[in-house]
User: Fold these one by one.
Assistant:
Number 1:
Amino acid sequence: MQTKQELEEWYEQDDPWEYTVTPDDIYRKRFYLTVLEGLGEYYDRALDVGAGEGFITGDLPAEQIHAIEISDNAASRLPKNVERVFVPEGTYDLVLVTGLLYKQYDHERIARLVSDAASKHVCVGGIEDWLLPYPFGRMVETFRFPYREYTSVFNVYEYERYSPWKG
Ligand SMILES: C[S@@+](CC[C@H](N)C(=O)[O-])C[C@H]1O[C@@H](n2cnc3c(N)ncnc32)[C@H](O)[C@@H]1O
């Protein structure tokens, strides 16, 4: 598993994955936001888990936006309209978790946190071959599109508590 220290070092430079200048990431972000717009919601509260520097976070359609990010270097660059939190503060009608439910991260803990924080829609994105199968309720939409040398998926769930933690 990648450690916090490794992630801090990775984020010593700005935008280490070059999201802001890579056409596939600009497309990915636009794709996510278009799907959210299609759901026809303006959310009260959104939580982005593993938000990085907030490449997507700052543009989420929500009144209040919280971000959870393990790297202090990354979090120091979050947009001004995004508040960093260390644990979910109550529940959120939108939870976004993209590029994070992978084996190199603490995915079990993250999935549990997402499950505890969600109240309505959970959006999960990532590289198809890497994404671990955590269902967060009834899947209402699913998309696949080319991304760098991979295929990217984006799933929208209507939240139901993830079964291993029911009860
Ligand atoms: C591949 S990046 C994805 C960034 C962003 N979600 C996106 O889709 O563009 C994964 C991010 O998750 C963060 N991360 C990794 N493990 C984490 C954890 N346990 N809690 C919070 N953030 C974590 C990393 O520091 C990194 O910023």
Number 2:
Amino acid sequence: MYSANCPSCGAQVSFRSAASVMAVCEYCRSTLVKEAGSVRDIGKMAECLEDYSPLRIGVSGNYDKRRFTLVGRIQLRYDAGFWNEWYVLFDDGSAGWLSDASGQYVFTLPAGRVENAPPFGQLRPGMRYTRDNVVWHASDVRSAACTGGSGELPFPVGAGWEAKVADFRSGERFLTLDYSDSAVPDLYLGQAVELDQLQCQLLRSDDEIAEGAGRYRGKTQALECPNCGGSLSYQVGQACHLLCPSCHAEVDASEDRAVVLAKHDEVETLNTTLALGDNGKISGTAWKVIGLMKCRETDSGETSEWVEYLLFNARLGFGWLVESSEGWERIAVLNRWPEVPSESAVRLGGKTYTQLYRYGSEVIYAAGAFNWRVSLGDRVMITDFRGPDGKLSAEHSANEITWSHAQPVPAQQVAEWFGKKSKVAAPARSDTATDYSLKGPAWVFTLLMLLLNVPLSLFSGVAGLIIIVFALLFLWVPVLVVKHLSGKR
Ligand SMILES: [Zn+2]
Ligand SMILES: [Zn+2]
């Protein structure tokens, strides 16, 4: 361990990792760069934004049977939010990174440089990248600015430092190409992890977080809309991007003062089956409806619309319910990606899912609190795959791809969860409704036509039979097309 006195305030600053080239003075926040036996002050480092993370410098744990300690942290902001990168020092002197994006954790270890990687500007989410016979898919490609830091770090970071990273997935494995320092990217390999499996010590407790920040992580907090004065509520540290249900202003409540990000003129009220603030109990766990958005299909002549409800539980985080003409579905975002052996099928947990639909979706209404920046007009491409236990969906935006698993839920069940027996009705339009409305009459006409025409056609020969066959095609093709289309959400 190397230590020196801060040239600015005189406090002792230590470098626990031999690979660290800079450290932030704990007392005066000077950024100190290690240079040939001394340290040079390159200016003050901004504080990290309080994000109520249980992690902090000094936390130790186990990864891959090795003991580690968190020794540094940088916070990175992009247009839709921010995340933390914790610099990890292992007991054997090697280093790695633990990224923490609103409670989603990924551990990665450095694995050298990649000479033949595609240029950063050419990378797009969904692109394939093959390395050592493993096929990877780009999940996330973005630039982000460093907005704060603390502890020690392996490269000099100051205000305005820009990270350029592309993340790739293969099942639960994770690969990052980091172009921040050069066009020849640094390679990192690792996997998505749950905090529990790292057996961490010295995590911040709920009380310690509240002591530092004045509020508990995940607590419902109310504020007045800075635009219209209406009442808004959000989840401290976890869902701070708000869309005012009264005036539609977009409000950022992640910092001490709520800031209006955008205003929208048109105000309509949307009556939804579940409302903001509704409480439900699903398998013994309490969930609250904190956000809702209505989406519409954008491609083809389709006019499908559906409502997505964002549910929140302080311990478990987020969940989704979707209400469409097909009925209700419960959605879980996947941390482990399916394998993609072909364009038309994917595999997950030994099950095969075949491609069903591919369509665009646009947000046409949103209100409440979200864990990312939602805006009216946000567009994504969705590809649905049907499998034995529901549907897998890939949601593709300009910067990232997310995978989720949807399981159908009877409307009756949703009504019981949220105590809304009278309001949650059966879906307005569904496969069974189509069966009754069109297929029934179609069969009656078919029987009548056969009864009346077959005896006649015996006299008119083959031509008569051909006319009957065409007549039946005219009858059945529209019926079956309607049935097929109504299968979409
Ligand atoms: Zn100092
Ligand atoms: Zn408002």
Number 3:
Amino acid sequence: MSFPRPGKKKEKKKDPHKEYALVTYIFSALFLVMIGYLLWFLIARSDRFINNSYNSKRIDAFAKNTLRGDILDREGEVLATTELLPDKSEVRSYPKGNRYAHVVGYISNGKMGLEQTANYYLLRSHANPLLRAKNAFSDEKDPGDSLVTTLLDPVQQASWEALGDYRGAVITMNPETGEILSCVSKPDFDPNEMERNYEALAASGDGVLLNRASQGRYAPGSTFKILTTLEFLREHPAKAKKYTFDCDGSFTSDGKEIHCFHNTAHGEEDLASSFANSCNASYASLGLTLKPGEFRKTAQTMFFDKPIICSLPTELPRFLLEEGASDAEKMETAIGQGKTYMTPLQLLLIVSAIENKGMAKKPVLCREIINNEGRTVERFPLGDERRLMTEEEAAVLESFLRGVVEEGTGRGLMNDAYEAYGKTGTAEINSAGDCHAWFTGYAKAEGKDPIAITVIMEGAGAGSSYAVPAAKKVLDTYFSYE
Ligand SMILES: [Zn+2]
């Protein structure tokens, strides 16, 4: 081991230029690393860092410099905007009133809906730098960026009107992309009046602020026969092909009697006609042949196991059929009564997967962010997908859903403008015979994207009498809209 002699070191120090150069190099390198990190943070990380709920106060501080941007439908229709009053105070206004209450939301007394999930984007500005420099000197606010949603106003309006005065929900989406076209929940509220009405609404106990389309949990009634059918096809593929049942209006096992709607005797049926007629006796009978453990596994893949992650607030549905369940529980589960609860959004994703060859697309509400001149700042990618069933299973279920419209409880949707598919449901909610009316399905026509729809009308009555006509109003509007 040797040490440099002091003398040698002294010799080196004789060249001051070299030393300065070294120091300059070190500082230049440090400077570049810092600039690099800053750029990386600004470009890659800061959005994620700032745009999380823990930073909501920091985001709201942006409002000091930015005039909150608009929320638009997919064609530019204004759903939320900020009006600047002469005294420079601001008012958030919702030109469509109640129609978008839950999905667009509000910003007074806390935030809800897209106003909450897109808060960060609406308070950023990608306006022209010259304008922003001018604003900085003149103490004016920069115009915030706007959110273009996937929603389509004519379909939203039709969904809202189709639900009428009933409580419940209507939700539609493109089954092949996951883009939500409409999302309505009632009872609703006027987001323009939230400042004044929030306390009363929150305390009303009516669940007015709940978005029933994604958070409402309901007995699925006969819409659940879609899952029962799939499970029967999986467990008994051979039996399913030659299945027959002679319906006399009811079916009894272990002392539990299951009735068809209005005790209608459906007569001789195969599996497709049992489904089209929504025959409870036939489904109670075949429900007894299903293994609870296997049925549970199938259900878990259909969003019963974890919440659906999307820009809508969601609730976990429920499927409770256990190994060793009684005949009564098996029969009730098979016809969608029992202890099963589903959300309208969940049913929408299941029928969408049938249309989309077995793949369920993640639902999306946001298309892009544009600046004040309409230039795209950021485009949101379409969501992930998840396989719910094989392509063959989807094809069989599709033929069954078509049978419902051609010769079953969905005949009200038969028309020349488009081809509809779906399943009705009439879910009993009490012993007095009150029922929720359901319809879930989709429709296609040449030259148009397909549309999937789920309708739930609380306490309305039979699905075929209430939910089918409501769905028809929405589908008619969508397919006649240019
Ligand atoms: Zn029957």
Number 4:
Amino acid sequence: MITKIALSKYIKQTALELGFHKVGIAAAGPLPHSEYLIEWLYKGYHGSMHWMEKYLDKRLDVHKLYPPAKSVIAVAQNYYTPYSHSQNPEQAKISRYAWGRDYHKIMKKKLKELLYRIQERDQSIDGRLFVDTAPIQDKLWAQEAGIGWQGKNTNILTKDLGSWIFLGELVINKILIYDDKISDHCGSCSACIDACPTNALQPYKLDATKCLSFLTIEHWDAPIPKEFHKKMNNWVFGCDICQDVCPWNRFAKESDEQAYYPVANNHRITLAELEVLSEEEFKKRFKNSAVLRAKFTNFMRNVHTISKAQSR
Ligand code: B12
Ligand code: SF4
Ligand code: SF4
């Protein structure tokens, strides 16, 4: 029978071997700040993301999602690649996280392998894995497990990789050794809040209804409200402004995960090219990419809205 110290060590070492860049472990207990999620929903900050209201009990309590939960193994993968957004007004901007292949599939495969390798050591272990695929609060678990702190832009930040990381969890039915939380290192900085073009941010709080990421990815089948047209600044899918200005992202390092490197020149694509994209071409071009989440009609709405605003 493997001891919990040896098992915890083995899990961390294996996660790193499988290509995760950060791993931490938290007890599957109650989450601090969970009450804010309720306040956020009550204030309507989630806009039309009604799926955030569903299974709220599970989002607030991991035991409702997976009753035997004892430990949450939180993992992160660096997706920083050495390219920046073009400032050429003819270029469309797709946020960095969607330049390469969809992280959900990449991370899920690695988490499945991690569970399999843990089970090889101890067959009594069972678990469930999550990569933004179920009602679970990825950012809060990453904080509990000591991966990073939540910055004022609401993303999880690390000292050595900045915030260009994807998050996921493997929840298992075994007690392990737990990591300490990392303290907040935002200090008196407010660069993200000052740079947000739509005033969507207050310290540690985001009103998604004003966020370009929400408006271009999750605001489906309705026009983008007029007040945001001139502020879209060529963001056709997502927005990286509040991360690009973050001083901790000066410490970003090139990822060794080839899957996150730009596919089909997604980081250098003109508005003119996108204007004439057919649905078939859209599906082909963004096959295996997170961009598909927006669906063709919404993606084209974004492109046309920006082009129109530019010509005014
Ligand atoms: C809904 C959602 C969105 C929404 C809302 C974003 C948001 N900030 O909540 C929209 C569509 C806008 C969005 C955008 C983006 N998203 Co998103 N999104 C999610 C999702 C599905 C849920 C997040 C959530 O629960 N929001 C609810 C609110 C209430 O949570 P919160 O803002 O974190 O609130 C907490 C704090 O405010 C805290 N709090 C309250 N008061 C105080 C006070 C203090 C002092 C402190 C410290 C904390 C604190 O308590 C709250 C606890 O719930 C997660 C995946 C998941 N399942 O968790 C991905 C996730 C957060 N998204 C991710 C990414 C990459 C993005 C984008 C960067 C994509 C892009 N480039 O466009 C942007 C970032 C925009 C931004 N500034 O946040 C990553 C973030 C990785 C990271 N490093 O943190 C996640 C974790 C997906 C993943 N698995 O990797 N997203
Ligand atoms: S992603 Fe863009 S619009 Fe959303 S909060 Fe950050 S800077 Fe503002
Ligand atoms: S820009 Fe400044 S305040 Fe915002 S997340 Fe980064 S360090 Fe924190």
